[in-house]
Amino acid sequence: SSSTRPEEAESINMQVTKKLLPSQMEPGLRKYQDSIKENANCLMRENEAE
């Protein structure tokens, strides 16, 4: 349902994230963010090339 507000979803994400051990979470999170940045950079380069 669409009754979940963004801030509710955010707090749920935080609760789930906190259940993971920080030592496990951090590297995965960094890798995830880095891959998102890489994808964004690739998309931007492709757009500029056109």
TrEMBL record:
Q: Which organism is it from?
A: Nymphaea colorata
In Swiss-Prot or TrEMBL terms, this protein is called Uncharacterized protein
Chain intervals for the UniProt region annotation (Disordered):
1-27
Superkingdom is Eukaryota
